[in-house]
Structure formats: C-alpha cells, structure tokens
Design goal:
The chain has about 325 residues and is α+β, with helices and mostly antiparallel strands.
Length: about 325
C-alpha cells in the first residue's frame, strides 16, 4: 500500500492511494485510523484490517489527491537516525568540504582526488547520527534557508520506517521490523556543518534547522518495495537531472543497520532510519549548491516524487 498523511480541515488524516493513483481513500473516516503512527503501532493485524476495509471503500471515503496537501508521512517521528553507507559519498564528501573551504576563503578551486578506499570504520559498522525529529516537512513545503548559512545543499536518500520495536535484533530477523519506505531529503547548511565538524561530535546546526528534513510523498509498505537496493533514485534541480542511480552500492542494508543499533538498545515503532546520501546525490560532491527559488525533486521508483522549493534566507 501507498500510505499518506494529508491535511484536511483542522487536522491531519491518513489515506491510502487507490489504483488510479489519483484518489486517496480516507482511512480516518473509513477505518478510524487516527494517525500514521497509530497505524504503524497497530502492527500486522491493524494493517490487514485496513487492507480489507480498503477493498470495499466507497465514493464517500475518496478524496482527490490533487485537492489535498500532503504532509510528511509521519509529521513528527519518534526518532530519526541518518546513516552513511554509500562508498562514493563517503569518499567524495570530505573532498567537497575542502573545496568549499577554499571557495569560502576566496582561494582558487582545489583539484583534489578522493581517497581510493573508504575508511575502515565505515565498512566495519553502519555509522549514523541523530537528526531533529521536530523539523520534518512534507512534499511541496518550502525549505526555510537558515540565516546563519550561505551554502544550502540537498541530499538524496530513502528511509526505512520501523513498525516493531525490540532489542538485540538479528540481521536475519530485522526485515520483519520494517513497516515501509519513504523518500528522505536531508537538507544541509554546508558552511555551518564544515565549521562544527572540526569539533569531532557530528553535525548540529549544519543539519538541525526548521524544515531541514523533508520526507514523502508516501510511505510504501515493505511488501510493495522488495529489496530497496534495486530502486532507482533521481535528483532534479529546476528540472535538470543532477544524479540518477540505484541504491545497489549500500555497504550495509537496512537490516544490518537495525541489528547494529539495537545492540543493547531498545528500538521503537515509527523510528526513521535514513539510508544516507547515494553517490553524487548532493551538491557537495560536485561543488554545486542551491539558490533561492530552486525546486528540488527527489524521485524514487515505487515511492514517488518529493518536491520542495528553497525559500529566501531569513
């Protein structure tokens, strides 16, 4: 199923995309589904109840997709962790930061080759950081340029959403804990990130600002996706393709991420695990950045298109 959270009247509702792709079945009125988080927490039994109800949905419960405003599938996730598992991005991002440093200092552009190998720590374990769960927006939302930054970037990712919690989950069973997948754009203030990463504690204001995490347009259940590494992901800026590739290069699949994080740590339904940026999936890797008014479209097959516009600096 392709599921969505959409604004309707004074509150949010949950919908399922119908076979035409043009209508949403209003699960709030049809099934009493109060939120995407509640649907996820209900587990397999609740999802099956919804599936059966959808089969008999009448016109009274249909809403035209073009007439509603989609929100992020989970507007305020219980947790967001973002990983870095794509070797090309891991190798090229540090080079991009050095080139950006030279640019900001008014120095000539550096000609630097990326390291030939990924640092061993990235192959040994799926490295991640915590993101701001309160800064999530959905498709068509404007991304507010933070006033402390002059360099804004996008990041092309997908995200897995958990529907079962647990601790010490094995990689072999971890797939059973994945509810579904959505598109994730981890917007970044690169100049702020470059400065703070010298502190060796990970990104803070480089990643954490209002509207900095865009997700959507749909949360697609795991059975419709299969192995997400086979999906093709594309980023377009103002209609121009900047990158298009599959997710095959992931060094650690989501199952390994879940197993690693759950070691003596309890996970919860509704947590979001970002895949990290695919190779060449951000401006940092190609020394091209966003400007006011730019339209950023991330498309992942079987999920849809996540479109956002960059607003003026505050």
């Amino acid at each position: 199923m392709k599921l969505a959270t959409f604004a309707h009247g004074s509150g949010d509702r949950v919908g399922a995309l119908d076979g035409s792709g043009e209508m949403l079945i209003d699960l709030t009125s049809l099934c009493g589904t109060t939120s995407m988080q509640a649907l996820i927490e209900g587990g397999p039994a609740e999802l099956e109840r919804v599936r059966q109800a959808v089969k008999d949905a009448s016109g009274d419960h249909l809403v035209r997709l073009a007439a509603v405003r989609l929100r992020a599938p989970i507007p305020v996730p219980v947790q967001i962790r973002d990983f870095s598992v794509f070797p090309t991005h891991i190798r090229q991002a540090p080079v991009g930061m050095r080139k950006l440093g030279a640019r900001l200092a008014g120095e000539p552009e550096l000609d630097i080759a990326p390291e030939p190998e990924v640092p061993a720590v990235y192959r040994e374990r799926p490295i991640y950081y915590f993101s701001n769960r309160f800064s999530v927006v959905g498709p068509e939302a404007k991304i507010a340029w933070p006033g402390y930054s002059t360099i804004i970037d996008f990041e092309l990712e997908i995200a897995a959403v958990l529907w079962r919690g647990g601790k010490n989950i094995t990689a072999e069973r971890a797939g059973e804990h994945i509810f579904g997948y959505t598109i994730f754009n981890d917007f970044s203030a690169r100049d702020a990130q470059m400065a703070e990463m010298r502190g060796m504690l990970g990104p803070t204001k480089g990643k954490s600002f209002d509207t900095g995490n865009a997700m959507g347009p749909f949360l697609v259940t795991r059975d419709e996706i299969g192995d997400p590494r086979h999906l093709r992901a594309t980023a377009r800026i103002n209609g121009q393709v900047w990158v298009s590739d599959t997710l095959e290069a992931m060094m650690h699949p989501f199952e390994q991420m879940i197993a690693y994080v759950s070691r003596d740590e309890t996970l919860h339904a509704g947590e979001v695990f970002g895949s990290g940026t695919i190779g060449n999936g951000c401006g940092l890797e190609v020394s091209r950045y966003l400007a006011h008014g730019d339209v950023v479209e991330l498309e992942v097959e079987k999920i849809g298109v996540l479109r956002n516009t960059i607003s003026a600096r505050s």
